[in-house]
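As noted in the main text, all predictions were made from sequence alone. Below is one such record, for C2H2-type domain-containing protein.
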Amino acid sequence: MDIIDNEDIDIKHSDKEFSKKCCHCDKAFSNRKQLEEHLKIHTEDRAYQCNQCDKAFTWKRNLESHVRTHTGDRPYKCSMCDQDFTEAYGLSQHKRIHTGEKPYQCNQCDKAFAQNGNLKSHMRTHTGEKPYTCSECDKAFSDSNSLVRHGRIHTGERPFKCSQCDKAFRTSSALQRHMIVHTGERLYQCSQCDKKFLLNSHLKTHMRVHNGERPYKCSMCNKVFSDESGIINHKRIHIGEKPYQCKQCDKAFTESGNFIRHMQTTHTEEMPYKCSQCDKAFFQSSHLKRHMTIHKGEKLYQCKQCDKMFLLNSYLKKHMSVHTREMIINTGEKLYQCSQCNKRFSLNSQLKTHMRVHRERQYTCSHCDKGFLFKSYLNKHLRIHFKEKHFKCSQCEKDFLHSSDLLSHMLTCEV
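Prediction:
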């Protein structure tokens, strides 16, 4: 730590004439008091001690804000949504959500931010700088908050506790998402379709459905995504990463959602969400909601290219591949590249099929040593050895080894 010498501080005879830069960081001040307050940062003079924990602060106002984390006191309340804050600065930043004010503009792209800290973090997406490194696993981050959140994975710390139940969370946003279970409140509403969201970040991501914005581009195949999680999950296709491992059957998944669905459908029989109009039950409330559209006949999902309407978003996504295929065929582009042999393909489905060439055929037939990528393929092959014919024609009672053979037969069966 540098020792500050009084001679380093050139103080003029009058505060009116005073103008001096800090000798440690070149920050400039117009009066003596401002400089003296600022110098406390460099001397690490922390005279204000919290009497409930070991934390100490340079300024009294910082201690007062900190004490509110112990008392739960949040005296600054938003007049537009009743959200409250421990300090005035937090409230002033929050109000920009309602006013839409974004005073901090990126000079490299058109993005603007409500907070200066968010602009600084964003600038690192242009520079690629990741100055914050985890001491446990060497993972690097572009901002300190991400490092702090990541560190809780190693420590197991869950500082955000629910006041309604015993659950605790690693991040405040996770706690906010959880609180909807108790309150059901969704404060952030879309101005174009009336959908409501728990978090403003969720609303921002949703708005890209309406404006078509897809700011996240894959550097390996140029595919674009509307949210960061989409590109993170997509990149795992190229590198073959499957971080979500099932401990009960050794299956692995690229996305947490697929892993959760696997656990619910394969390793549990609990189906808490029951349809009031038929006997079907579901693992997730969202699945029940999708199912209810069948009873109501509502087609909420519309294709922007041909105006066709669909019952489910999954049907719309499947339909959109028709337009994507047409566009790719017309342009002749081959956007999808194999990470193993650099072969390129027009469609992602073609790349996925090709990737099987590189995978180990772990399922081997005990009768002829033929290898298969999937257990289902081996089971299908075994019917040849056992002459099992599971597929029977309902018209003439002929048996077939494979369903495809039965379907071909059904087209010509005249009995």
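Confidence is low (pLDDT under 50) at residues 1-18. Residues 110 and 388 are 64 Å apart (CA to CA). These features were considered when defining construct boundaries for the mutagenesis experiments described in Section 2.9.
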